[in-house]
Amino acid sequence: MNFILFGPPGAGKGTQAKYLVKKLGNFQISTGDMLREEIQKNSEIGKRIVSDMDNGNFVSDKIVNTLIENVLFDPKKKDRLIFDGYPRSLAQAKNLDILLKKSNQSINFIFFLNVNKETILKRIEKRKILEKRSDDDLNTFTKRYDTYMETTKPILDFYSKNLNFHEIDGSSKIEEITAKIDSFINV
Ligand code: AMP
Questions:
Q1: What backbone phi and psi angles, to 5 degrees, belong to 81?
Q2: Highest-confidence range of 134-143, 146-155, 165-174, by mean pLDDT?
């Protein structure tokens, strides 16, 4: 089964992805983690993206699409994908469609975790203390949230007509969101 977890930063995509990894043995494909890894390795990509990441801007579609392509054609991960933080633009969504077809796969469930800014700001305050992420300071976070909301609207329009698209109230408790996800996949 392949999944897309969709929703603003801090919506709980990572938490739910980890639940699905444990439950199904799938792979969490977090473009944010992959990009942070490039920065840590100080790779060519890492050097190019560090200022975009620190300022809360999106990294170019070209760079992210290249990272994703490698994942889709990894036989070990076939039909066991959980996209967390990808796609984030219409161009990425269309690219994903092409790569899925080429690799003979499809998305079984798209879960949109919808949360308002105030709820997320409270969560981020906690995460900042726990994870010490450089892009979690309040200004950068607000920028990331706004960028996300502005640029992902076309993706919502693109996916929301699909029968496998489900909107979930992301301000609920973690266990409630998990239960909701389970109710869709355990049928
Ligand atoms: P995340 O860990 O998903 O919150 O992502 C952290 C940061 O990584 C974002 O603010 C962007 O700078 C970058 N990023 C992650 N995923 C993408 C993506 N699919 N497209 C463009 N930039 C991304």
A1: -105, 140
A2: 165-174
Atom 2 in ligand 1: which residue has the minimum CA distance? Answer: 32
Please tell me the distance between residue 52's alpha carbon and the centre of ligand 1 in angstroms. Answer: 9
56 in ligand 1 pocket by Cβ < 6 Å? yes
**Ramachandran sector of residue 85 (left: φ over 0; alpha: ψ -120 to 50; beta: rest):** left
Looking at residue 135, what is its pLDDT?
63
Reported as a single tens digit per residue, the pLDDT across 34-71 is 999 999 999 999 999 999 998 888 899 999 999 999 99
Across the range 17-40, mean pLDDT stands at: 96
Q: Are 108 and 164 in contact (CB under 8 A)?
A: yes
CA quadruple 55, 149, 7, 68: dihedral sign:
negative
Domains of the chain, residue spans: 3-185
Q: Taking residues 138-151, what's their average pLDDT?
A: 83
Six-digit token string for 104: 């003979």
Hey, which CATH number is domain 3-185, 3.40.50.300, 2.60.40.10, 3.30.1060.10, 3.30.470.20? 3.40.50.300
Q: Is 77 in the pocket of ligand 1 (CB under 6 A)?
A: no
